[in-house]
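FAQ: What does the model actually see?

It sees only this:
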Amino acid sequence: MRQASSFEAIDFPALSERPAKLRRVTAADAIFEGLYADIVSLRMPPGMALQEKRIADEFGVSRTPVREALLRLSEGGLVDIYPQSGTVVSRIPVSAIPEAVVVRKALESTTVERAARIAQLHDIARLDAIIARQKALTVVGDASSFHEEDEVFHQALTQIAGYPGIWTILKTVKVQIDRARRLTLPALGRMDNVVPEHIAIRDAIAAHDAEAARDAMLHHLSAVIPDVAELRTRYPDYFC
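And it is asked to produce this:
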């Protein structure tokens, strides 16, 4: 009998058992992600001045990674850099929102149709848990946490559909919508409307009705546009 080689004797772990490759996070990455979250959540509102030295001191780094992070934010339309003058958080461009909604409708309607066709009972239970949390947050008026659960709901739909990469695309596309929506939830009572809209999407998926799921998603996303005009009146300094 042929003796097994040392290579053949190795018991390689299954792919699912191997540790995931860790992404190396640089100082610039950490600063970018921190500022990104603050800008999108409006903790740093449009028009706010950003000081390189202050950011560098806060993160305990030199100004070089701060500048790198600010350049990335500028490329994403979240900050305006004025040479010799400084950097400010960008205003929300109203003209960019309708186009972003069109992209969201195209991608998410396709995603939810797929989810409706293949969703299983545990997928519906996952959506139910998210909706339950949103109901509880509506009662206490926690708009910030509600928005985070809204993100979880839409991301879950892409995962249920087997299209997780679509969520990565959507996060970039909808960044200006997200900034505007942070104003719609407390100012225009959107939380009270979002929950039944999510329930309609969930029910259509549970019924494996792809057409109804698509229609419910399109109705849900269409609600973003009418809010913008009123928001611009309420917060004229936030939009351009």
